[in-house]
Amino acid sequence: MEPVTRNYYVGIDGGGTKCKARLENAQGELLGEGLSGPCNPAQSAETAFASIIEATTLALEAASLPATKMSDLNVCMGLAGVNVARYRETAQRWIFPFKHTHITTDLHIACLGAHAGQDGAIIITGTGSSALASVGENLSSIGGHGFPLGDKAGGAWLGLRALQYTLEALDALVPTSRLVKDMCEALGTDEPQAIVGKSLHYKSSDFGKFAPIVVKCANDNEPVSLSIVNEGKQYLTGVISQLEKLGAKRISMIGGISSQWAKWLPDNIQQRLQPAKCSPEFGAISLVKHLVKES
Questions:
Q1: How far apart are CA 257 and CA 243, in angstroms?
Q2: What are 154-168's pLDDT values in tens digits?
Q3: Could you name the domain of life of the organism this protein comes from (predicted)?
Q4: Domain 155-270 is found in CATH 3.30.420.40
């Protein structure tokens, strides 16, 4: 049984498709974790807020702690989308039932976790994509402009590129391929207008559902998928070079499809990458502990 204490810490990693909460006590022991749905205020502020509460509630339940302990939680949340001022302001207006709340970017907490609080840089390739270098007191971001303006090499971008090629192939403008066949199968139709009707209001998470098709085809050396992957590889190679110019000595790739990109990148690029030491949620907890101590 967890002893009576008011020092609970929660780190939340909120991304385009999922929200994960990690609950620790003052001694740094993991008490429970919770996983919920999309958590990007730029996509839906209402959904993001609900996901944060749900993930935190599930973490409390996993720790066999009552929901009334919400008011004892010191929480740091790193959220996708809050690098844009208007969405950060939206998140800062939220009223949480927590004791202490700090909001930062998902990149910030991921970088803290990946390098255990030391200098370094990260590249996130999940539903979206972005990069951050933390060197001394300087935080420098690359990308993170949001889908569809940015997020190149992210899952949503892979799905969008596959869908674009599929439509062009169905219009007989480019050769058909296995990728086109697999995409039509997933969509349940090979009629261009029907596909447009289905996808007209897709969010990034919807496009991201097609990423596994591109990944599987590329791993089987399907030419169209390989051309999409090559475009992403060129982008990521440029990002890595820029992070090094910013002074990052240690670079990690994280995110749902980071292991795939690491395999696809040239050997000389792979050798410049280092594994992440800890999770983004761990980084968020280390930050909130520091902030609470300072206050």
A1: 20
A2: 999 999 999 999 999
A3: Bacteria
A4: yes
